[in-house]
Amino acid sequence: MKQRNFWIQMNVDAIRVGIGNGAMCSTSIKSGIGIGQVDAIIRALEAKNNLGSNVKIIADGGINTPGAMCKALALGCDAVMFGRVLAGTEESPGDVLKYNNQRWKKYCGSASFAVKQDKKNYIEGEESLVPYKGAVSKIIREYTEGLQSSMSYLNSRTIGEFQNNASFVKLTSNSFNERKPQI
User: Fold this and answer.
1) Structure pTM?
2) 77 is annotated as an active-site residue
3) Which domain holds residue 109?
4) Contact 127, 106 (CB under 8 A)
5) How many angstroms separate the CA atoms of 11 and 160, rounded?
6) Max Cα-Cα span within the chain
7) 168 inside domain
8) How far apart (Å, rounded) are the C-alpha atoms in residues 140 and 135?
9) What is the predicted pLDDT for the residue at 126?
10) Cβ of 124: how many Cβ atoms within 10 Å?
11) What's the order of all strands across the beta sheet hosting 14-17?
């Protein structure tokens, strides 16, 4: 609790929440630091509310589907960050590579060997190839439409209404798997 309060009391404008939840992040495995993204968001929001702060909360890591973005916003986040979601788009950095008749782009975690280069002593990020996805506009449209759909289910016209109307339950792994398309 002390660390969460520290940053809020420092009167910062925003706090990025999430350690070890990103697709290319190995921090939790290598350092033992980090908790689940939903728990991290809930704890940050609780500290914000307890201090009566206006700090903005940004979910960083684990936002890999439109539904995950909707949950982070419904919990109370002001913004979300995307890594792997946007990796592989035309607008993301790097060249398009051809391998086995498919197009790919390299994606590196922020503490990966490729990113750290001159400080190679301890790496907490992975590197991978991701499928080439084309223009970022179709990804943004998918996430926008996911949020619109989620808001419609909760009878919400604004993000504020969406946050007020949302409720959450814990799911077992079986109930989580039941919710996936059965193709």
Assistant:
1) 0.79
2) no
3) 2-158
4) yes
5) 23
6) 55
7) no
8) 9
9) 65
10) 20
11) 14-17, 56-60, 79-81
Give the pLDDT of residue 6.
67
Q: What is the C-alpha to C-alpha distance for residues 150 and 144, in angstroms, rounded to an integer? A: 10
Two tokens, residue 173:
């792994």
- Asked if residue 164 belongs to a domain, the reply is no
From 25, 70, 77, 108, active-site residue = 25
User: Domain holding 88: CATH number?
Assistant: 3.20.20.70
Burial class (CB in 10 A: 0-12, 13-18, 19+), 121: exposed
Residue 89 in 3-state DSSP?
strand
Separation between Cα atoms, residue 40 and residue 59, nearest integer Å: 9
d(CA 140, CA 146): 10
Q: How far apart are CA 115 and CA 126, in angstroms?
A: 10
Q: Which residue has the higher pLDDT, 46 or 117?
A: 46
Q: How far apart are CA 171 and CA 176, in angstroms?
A: 6
Q: Quote the number of domains for the chain.
A: 1
Span 25-49, pLDDT tens digits = 555 565 666 678 888 899 999 999 9
- pLDDT tens digits, one per residue of 65-111: 999 999 999 999 999 999 889 988 999 888 888 988 999 888 775 55
d(CA 163, CA 157): 11
Backbone dihedral angles phi then psi of residue 102, each to the nearest 5 degrees = -125, 155
